[in-house]
């Protein structure tokens, strides 16, 4: 398992403090409450470590009995991660007689970031190439390896340990995110990485460590502990909220396009403020003009077994029978048998039209206008 402890300027939060340096010290005032998502991710990282060590023939004790979130999907994810890394190792052995693999390796990048350290999920070195592999269990946001500061910090820390031994000239960074079917790879030269560290990282890290610099809001706010109370975020989103949404025809195309790029951040900020206010009210705080009440709830059985017995004794059938859903049916039959038996009876309807940024990987839909244009 990785070492305990958290750096003020951690690799995992680097996107935030590089873009918004003073947020690093601001977040120190908040208790780290954790979340179910974080706990599930930690469990899966422990399982990934175990399965990878198993695949490489390294003695390891199974963590499964201590994993609160363990399930079949997590097992599949960990097995896939172990397979992916072992395939990288097998490929490396084709051209390198002695590739090196390190699992849950602690790295220190304090040469550039004061008190900076972290733990890389997997490091593989072969033929002058440093491979950094990072497992992501989240299925909400797709993570890219391209210019990913967390991965770059891990790479810097790994260079501090291994560069003099293995004469590294290339850094390859991989995000393995199975629940998003995402394997993102980014490669850069060691010189380019060091140039970024010397010209950009060091200055921003120093500002962040001292609690200096300018506040800035963006996608990195979603993991900030101060996101609900941050004045900079509030002012940015309130400026957007001043648009007159009831009369969109009065906005020009550029304004509407600008709003589309920011509206998700606006709604996320509003939800964060509302959740923060609720939790504070539950803890006893009173907000002027607001009160805490009991919300609606649905009736439920105290014991389904007793209910079924009582209904059956009265001469009725308490059960309903329906076909399993697609996911449950595939688990029951197995993928190959599922495809063999049911492929002719499965259809995937066209998804509901959704506006997304041009960077989204999905192909653009044909609209009535584009269909019309294709006919001429």
Automatic annotation (TrEMBL):
Region spans: Disordered: 350-376
GO molecular function, one term: hydrolase activity
One matching Pfam family: DUF2800
Transferase among keywords: no
Recorded superkingdom: Bacteria
Keywords: Hydrolase
Keyword Hydrolase in record: yes
Protein name, per record: DUF2800 domain-containing protein
Source organism: Ruminococcus bicirculans (ex Wegman et al. 2014)
């Amino acid at each position: 398992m990785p070492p305990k402890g958290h750096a003020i300027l951690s690799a995992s939060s680097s996107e935030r403090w590089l873009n918004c340096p003073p947020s690093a010290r601001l977040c120190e005032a908040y208790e780290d409450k954790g979340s179910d998502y974080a706990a599930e991710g930690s469990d899966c990282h422990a399982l990934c470590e175990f399965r990878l060590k198993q695949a490489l023939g390294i003695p390891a004790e199974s963590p499964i009995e201590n994993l609160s979130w363990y399930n079949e999907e997590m097992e599949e994810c960990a097995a896939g991660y172990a397979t992916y890394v072992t395939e990288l190792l097998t490929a490396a052995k084709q051209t390198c007689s002695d590739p090196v693999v390190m699992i849950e390796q602690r790295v220190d990048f304090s040469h550039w970031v004061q008190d900076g350290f972290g733990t890389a999920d997997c490091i593989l070195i072969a033929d002058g190439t440093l491979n950094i592999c990072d497992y992501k269990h989240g299925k909400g946001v797709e993570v890219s390896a391209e210019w990913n500061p967390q991965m770059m910090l891990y790479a810097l820390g790994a260079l501090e340990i291994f560069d003099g031994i293995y004469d590294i000239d290339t850094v390859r960074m991989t995000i393995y995110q199975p629940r998003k079917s995402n394997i993102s790879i980014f490669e850069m030269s060691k010189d380019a990485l060091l140039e970024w560290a010397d010209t950009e990282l060091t200055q921003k890290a120093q500002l962040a460590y001292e609690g200096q610099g300018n506040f800035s809001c963006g996608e990195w706010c979603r993991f900030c502990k101060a996101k609900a109370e941050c004045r900079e975020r509030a002012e940015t989103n309130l400026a957007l909220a001043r648009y007159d949404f009831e009369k969109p025809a009065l906005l020009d195309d550029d304004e509407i396009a600008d709003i589309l790029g920011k509206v998700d951040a606006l709604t996320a900020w509003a939800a964060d403020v509302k959740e923060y206010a609720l939790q504070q009210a539950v803890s006893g705080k009173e907000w002027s003009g607001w009160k805490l009440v009991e919300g609606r709830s649905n009736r439920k059985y105290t014991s389904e077994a007793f209910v079924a017995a009582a209904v059956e004794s009265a001469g009725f059938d308490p059960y309903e029978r329906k076909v399993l859903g697609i996911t449950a049916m595939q688990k029951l039959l197995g993928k190959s048998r599922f495809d063999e038996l049911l492929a002719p009876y499965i259809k995937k309807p066209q998804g509901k039209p959704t506006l997304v940024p041009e960077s989204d990987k999905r192909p653009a839909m044909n609209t009535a206008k584009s269909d019309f244009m294709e006919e001429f």
